[in-house]
Design goal:
Blueprint (H helix, E strand, L loop, with lengths): L6 H4 L12 H12 L6 E5 L6 H13 L14 H7 L6 E5 L6 H11 L9 E6 L6 H12 L5 E7 L7 H4 L3 E4 L5 H15 L2 E2 L1 H11 L3 H15 L2 E2 L1 H7 L5 H13 L2 H13 L4 H17 L13 H11 L4 H18 L5 H13 L1 H12 L34 E4 L5 H5 L14 E4 L12 H14 L5 H9 L3 E2 L4 E6 L2 H9 L1 H12 L5 E6 L12 H11 L2 H9 L4
Parallel strand pairs: 1-4, 1-5, 2-3, 3-4, 6-7, 11-12
Antiparallel strand pairs: 8-9, 10-11
Helix pairs in contact: 2-3, 5-6, 8-9, 9-10, 9-11, 12-13, 12-17, 13-17, 14-16, 16-17, 20-21, 20-23
């Protein structure tokens, strides 16, 4: 029985060409080898499973190859390549800094560096997880790293670049490895599936690639796991079942429920997700990603940002047409707030359910907000013709709160209601017959008389709106209320200059609010400083009480002197 070799080892790249998703780095290394411009120290840094150690091994094999190809690849047939492939090369040394991180380990390495290679030109030292070295070990390594023997080359690999001393970084050429794209991982898995005789759906491999989060080694581990579960045929359903991934279908159905305002089905879907063993926080994060994908699907330029299969991409494109940008903005904001509050919430299920109900109410909120912002603009009157009578002139005057008047029948020309609402007066075509219509004439309410009780009521209403955000201004507005000085002027009397300056800064905002609420565009405000009445001081000490009594009855002073009394 043959020993099973995992795909991450079996299909590990052995040439620069076979490295997945790091084309810029492999090209740079090949050009350096071809031009014979090799640095003495390299630092490969990046996430796990993106090819750092693999590229270090390929680089070490290639620079020692005795018969490199025209594409600057190792031949695989010379003595040096065969020794490397058989794991018996004395030119390439690998050190795990996670378990060999002391000063003694580095001293042993320094002693070993002095020995020249037996076969080939270079001795290559690959140090994995170099950030695990202690500070003393780093300091012991500095001199050798800066001025090694001519035959020595160092390749340091790490996932945590920020933990390495700056003095080490300054002595190395640094290569930052990127996360591998979902599409590149999916294509690589498809090739491996073909070699293994496995039929795999593109959508299934795409889910595996997304689950790997940019790491090819993780993707290959998931691939082996699913191949053991599903056999020679890998399907989308088997992948989401085995990897415990939440199906796209849930997110599409939930979004349809949100657009319809159907909170009942949303809560039932969430309950089903919990019963299947999914974590609520992962569900919320997945929902946020779904809204983000819908947002980028609305424009052809951003559609390329979706790292998903073609069939799923079409579904995103279709659903994005039903969801407005305002809806998606609000949805992303709500799910982000839930994500922040989740760890602090005591009842986490209730928090998620409240979030779902908010999502169901977004469209209703947007419609209400739009209705409040719509204001009818008055139509400008057409210039009167000397030969025309007033009965033949169309006059439409609108206000936000019109005063009811009896309907007056007048002969009017044919006019578009839509144009009238938008403030555009369309002149009638001379060829069209004049149609007799009923035009409702509203009396303007822009100068409604002020009533002091209404003024104070709206004043306090404005103050309440500032209670949470500006408590100081709220306190001033509650303390000082205006009085009517005349038919259009409000008089506000305060006690000091500081309060006056603060209110003067907000005077325009306050007047705008009052003009709108009181329907009077001529309101003015006068702010003055009044002298504060002198407060009566109550005596507290015995001396103060005695002086107070003497003021009331001077005879007490004579009584004190006569009997020589102490206070």
């Amino acid at each position: 029985m043959e020993n099973f070799i995992v795909s991450a080892r079996k299909y590990r790249p052995d040439t620069f060409e076979s490295v997945v998703g790091q084309r810029s780095i492999t090209t740079t290394l090949q050009n350096a080898i071809k031009a014979n411009k090799l640095a003495h120290a390299y630092l490969f840094c990046g996430p796990r499973g993106v090819g750092k150690t693999t590229c270090a091994r390929i680089f070490a094999q290639t620079i020692n190859c005795q018969n490199r190809t025209s594409e600057t690849e190792a031949c695989g047939e010379c003595e040096s390549c065969k020794a490397f492939q058989g794991s018996r090369s004395y030119n390439i040394h690998e050190l795990d800094a996670a378990s060999n991180n002391s000063v003694e380990d580095i001293r042993n390495l320094i002693d070993q560096v002095r020995i020249p290679p037996q076969i080939g030109k270079y001795s290559v030292y690959i140090i994995d997880e170099v950030h695990m070295l202690s500070s003393a070990a780093f300091n012991a390594f500095l001199k050798t790293l800066e001025e090694p023997p001519a035959h020595a080359r160092f390749i340091l690999a790490t996932t945590e670049k920020h933990k390495i001393l700056p003095t080490i970084l300054s002595r190395c050429q640094i290569f930052d490895f990127n996360r591998i794209k979902v599409q590149d991982i999916a294509e690589h898995l498809q090739k491996i599936a073909g070699r293994e005789g496995i039929t795999a759906e593109p959508e299934a491999l795409n889910v595996v690639a997304q689950k790997a989060d940019g790491g090819l080694r993780d993707a290959l581990s998931f691939f082996d796991q699913i191949a053991s579960f599903s056999g020679a045929e890998i399907t989308y359903e088997k992948v989401i079942e085995n990897l415990n991934v939440l199906d796209y279908e849930y997110y599409f159905k939930l979004t349809d429920n949100f657009l319809e305002g159907n909170y009942v089905e949303s809560l039932l879907a969430y309950n089903e997700i919990l019963n299947r063993g999914f974590d609520s926080l992962n569900f919320i994060n997945g929902l946020s990603e779904h809204f983000r994908d819908l947002l980028v699907s609305k424009e052809p330029k951003t559609l390329e940002l979706l790292e998903i299969g073609a069939s799923i991409k079409e579904r995103y494109k279709k659903q994005s047409q039903n969801a407005s940008v305002a809806f998606l903005y609000q949805a992303l904001n709500i799910t982000s707030q839930c994500d922040v509050q989740y760890k602090m919430a005591k009842n986490k299920r209730l928090l998620v359910e409240l979030t779902l109900m908010k999502l169901n109410n977004i469209l209703q909120f947007i419609q209400k907000q739009n209705a409040e912002n719509v204001q009818l603009q008055p139509v400008q009157k057409q210039p009167e013709n000397n030969t025309a009578t007033k009965a033949e002139t169309t006059t439409i005057t609108t206000t936000t709160q019109p005063v009811k008047k009896p309907v007056v029948e007048k002969k009017t020309s044919s006019i578009s209601i839509k144009n009238a609402m938008n403030g555009v007066a369309k002149e009638p075509d001379k060829k069209e017959n004049v149609v007799e219509e009923k035009a409702v004439v509203y009396e303007t309410a822009s100068n409604k008389p002020l009533v002091e009780s209404e003024v104070k009521s709206k004043w306090l209403e404005y103050a309440e709106s500032l209670k949470a955000t500006e408590p100081r201004l709220y306190s001033n507005l509650k303390t000082y209320t205006p009085t009517l000085k005349d038919e259009k002027t409000l008089h506000l009397a305060i006690i000091n200059q500081s309060q006056k300056e603060n209110l003067e800064k907000r005077k325009g905002e306050i007047l705008s609010f009052l003009k709108k609420e009181l329907r009077n565009s001529n309101i003015e405000m006068l702010i003055t400083i009044t002298k504060q009445a002198k407060k009566s001081t109550r005596p507290y000490s015995n001396t103060d009480k005695y002086k107070y009594l003497i003021e009331k009855n001077p005879v007490l002073a004579k009584l004190q002197q006569k009997f020589n009394l102490d206070i």
